[in-house]
Amino acid sequence: MVDILHRVGVVAPLDDVYRAVATPEGLAAWWTTDTVGKSEVGEQLAFRFGDAGGFDMEVLELDPTGHVRWRVADGPEEWVGTEIDWRLDQRGDYTIVLFSHEGWREPGEFMHHCGTKWATFLMSLKALVETGRGRPAPDDVRISDWH
Q1: 2-131, what's its fold?
Q2: DSSP collapsed to 3 states, 80-105
Q3: In this predicted model, what pLDDT tens digit does every residue of 4-54 receive, in sequence order?
Q4: CA distance 69 to 84
Q5: Torsion angle in degrees (nearest 10) through CA of 120, 5, 40, 59
Q6: Where is 109: in which H helix or E strand?
Q7: Average of pLDDT values for 101-113?
Q8: Half-sphere exposure (Cβ direction) of 52: Cα atoms closer than 13 Å
Q9: Where are the domains of the chain?
C-alpha cells in the first residue's frame, strides 16, 4: 500500500481550517462546488466533478481539535476503500495541515495525477481560508486531460 502525503501551512486559526475541511459548505468553497451530504460520523459526503465523475466519502472521524478522516465508499476503483486523513495543528499564526490519502494498492499514473490534483486543491484551501476565496472545481487548475 502507498499513500499521497502533503503538508501546508495556512495563516489562520485552526477553527477556520477545520470548518473548511469538515463542513459541506467549507469543502464546496475550495474542492468542488458540487458537494452535498451530512458531515457527521457514519454519514456520507458526495463530491462531483462534472464529466470527470466523483466520490462518496463515509465520515469516520470529526474532531474539532484537529482531525477529520473519511473512507472512500464509491468512486474510481483505485479510490474505493482508501482513506483521506486531515490532521491540523496550530503553531503560532499557522495552522499546519498534514494531509494523507492512504491505502492505494499501487503507485500508478492515476495516483500520480491525484497527488498533483490534491496539491492544487490544498492551495485552493489555503487561499480560501487566508483570503476568503478558493478555486474549487469547476474553476480549479487543470493539469491534464483527466482534469
Answers
A1: Alpha-D-Glucose-1,6-Bisphosphate; Chain A, domain 4 (3.30.530)
A2: CCCEEEEEEEEECCEEEEEEEEEEEC
A3: 999 999 999 999 999 999 999 999 999 999 999 999 999 999 999 998 899
A4: 6
A5: 110
A6: helix 109-131
A7: 95
A8: 18
A9: 2-131
All three cell numbers of 129: 481560508
Of 115, 88, 98, nearest in space to 2 by CA: 115
Burial class of 123 by CB neighbour count within 10 A (0 to 12, 13 to 18, 19+) = middle
Which stretch of DSSP H or E encloses residue 71?
strand 67-74
Q: Name the pTM for this structure.
A: 0.95
Please report which helix (H) or strand (E) contains residue 113, including its range.
helix 109-131
